[in-house]
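Supplementary Methods S3. Input chains for the assembly prediction are listed below.
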Amino acid sequence: MPSHGIRDRVAIVGMGCTRFAEHWDKGVDELLLDAAGEAFASAGVTRDDVDAYWLGTAQSGMSGMTLSRPLRLRGKPVTRVENYCATGSEALRQAAYAVASGAYDVAMAIGVEKVKDSGYQGLNAFPIPDDGTQRTLTAAAMFSMVAPAYARRYGVSETEMRTVLARIAAKNHANGARNPRAQFRKEMPVERLRAMPAVAGGLSVFDCAGVADGAAAAVLVRAEDAARYTGRPLLIKALSLVAGDGSGVTDPSYDYTSFPEVAASAADAYAQAGVTAPREELAMAEVHDCFTPTELVLTEDLGLADRGTAWKRVLSGDFDRDGELPVNPDGGLKAFGHPVGASGLRMMFEAWLQLRGEAPPERRISTSGSRSLALTHNLGGYPGEMVSFVSIVGTS
Amino acid sequence: MRGILGWGAYLPYRRLDRSTIRAVAGTGGGTGHRTVASYDEDTTTMGVAAARDALRGTAARPRAVWFATTVPAYLDKTNATVAHAALRLDRTAAAYDAVGSVHSAMGALRAGLDADGPCLVIASDVRTGLPGGADEAAGGDGAAALLAGSDRDGPVLAERLAWASLTEEFLDRWRIPGAAASRTWEERFGETRYTALGLEAFKLALGDAGLEAGDVATLIVAGPHARAARAVAAGSGVPAVRIADRLDGRAGDTGAAHPGLLLVAELERAAAEGAEAGRIVVLLTLSDGADAVVLRTTGALAAHRPYRPLAEQLEAGAPVAYGTYLAWRGLLPVEPPRRPGPARPSAPAAARNRDWKFGLVGSRGEDGTVRLPPSPLDAARHPMAGETGTVAALTVDRLAHSPSPPVVFAVVDFDGGGRLPVELTDVDESGIAVGDRIEMTFRRLFTADGVHNYFWKGRPARGAGQAAPDGEGTG
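Predicted structure tokens for the full assembly:
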């Protein structure tokens, strides 16, 4: 993919993130004010110091006015973006490119979603008029097809697979339990997770990400200006987005054991960042664990494990917070829930805390201090037809 | 010579054991089974299923399609146009509904036999009564399709010799539009009137054909008044062994579809027996008057092999619980899922994509790739409705919105290329596995804002028609 990237040209100098929760007493406005306020304070700026805003929300509001009204922004360019579950990351990407272009000195990327106000279970897509032939299956069911396909291809027994998936959920719940911003803060033992009844294919409710409301924000400036705001900026090394052509859904050779869009965006991001050995170079990865088999497969697509080996690395604890490459040290979508527009920036917030050494000792990653790069990843859509986003950030 | 060129019969997969009714309803029930249309079937979808089989293996292109039912999926809007689109009939083929009564189904057949050129006559019905009532147990769901035409259109299998019709206004059975069940007058009144009308029509028709009761190989007496039908048969002069089985025990009375269904059963039996030409079959129906049509089989009949024989369908099927049946019919409201209901399909989008939505036509690219739905970048259309495929991946969704959860869903790879992730129907979640064979069936996915969302689903290919000896087309 012929992308040039913006390596080391843009820095994140301030971030904010609400607790992700069932915010019955907060609306979109309050969540945006909380996240933006924390990010302004973190960067030492006011709303008027920010030249341009990018708001990511999938379906909690339309147009830039969703942000400009609660923040009372006057005369500012505010853009609303949407790209499925990569919506928050897309906002970050647009803000970063705007700063890199020289168009603005200071930009904010902010994401928000009110999911719980719908009164329904799970995430539900905004209805778009169509011919009625689109599938109405839940995402859980679509992703549930990954687990048996992976098990069949790599010779993993049904029992082993059940343990692998439960192990992923248990890891993320254990990480979330230590994180005050996480929605679910209770450890879940593997045996209990293994015994849960199935709701979609072989997946139980605990193989699925939670559902929550939340918001997160970042303040971005040119790298050479970063020192004016903080002594410990996060430098953007790579931003890569791939929107698949949906061919996996119609192609009989697609076997549900990989997400080609993720592999493509990862390869592009590593090239942009100059990363050649992600397993040795990355301090951590925040990945899109919308369902437990998703996390399993995409660790391979992201090059964090060789093909067909991620399940063994999960079992041996390689991706645990104290493992050789911590994955979802903040608890992931599993423990946070998934307010669509906010999730990508929530992931970045964890990289912000961990790489800068601000995560408290009880939840600090094993690689803290020894490695300086973090990866965040979102995907949106279904196996065979998805968008994928990968970022790489670093402190040096 | 004008007559029947082909036929199709359709019985839904589900069967209600009548003995299970009484335990819940406190009354009613009986012995034997009745057919039950699935939650995703209506008179239109069943009619399409029967018509697809009627059109298999014939080169005749219908110039008109008539659709008859007592339970139309739509009023105001023509249901025959949905069937027309699903069957991918020519734009110049007319499509008409004949809606409201068993009598209208006979009118449609008469119109088909009187028409110029090939004419497809579809009769389809869903029969429902109130819980514990006689109609609930005696009714059945199903469809029949008869392709009428002349020997210019293809080999005639049964030639029409005569038609007699008697019209008489009296009140025996009635239903206000929207009502869940019919009402009937006390039985004896209707029996008296129908018996006299039936015998008279029978005599008139035979007279027109220059035949006598003794010439009749089979007398079919259809119509919802079972006592009258038995009385007409008994008084007809046709020996009891030549009176056709009304399929009460294995299907139930399928209303507007029943005359066609019983005729199909008889023609199929004659074909299977290798009957010689000249067998006389009389179809007599008792409904707001009486109609009698005299048919004579031809030498071509013995060679005709239906794609999905009614006899096989009668033996097939799987049980449905009485509570599920009541829920499917809207007689037992059940808790909806905590998910938003589906949105109604867009009329312009459906119209633009009607080949795909109604006809299951994909596209084929220059590189041979089959795309479902079709791509505007591909020049060649690729019809899929008759294709079979194999389950490549499978899941059961207990969270998705469905009129009858859980949703069983498969990724199907078609033998001739192409992959379609698609909902399955007529299957229990434990009854399907990766590698199983799938065929396509036209169904109603859901109804929103009074708009029926028709599209195709997969269903296990259960062997029907797999051994069609003449390798008939795959429609």
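Chain B touches chain A through 46 residues (CB under 8 Å). Residues 48 and 293 of chain B are 25 Å apart (CA to CA).
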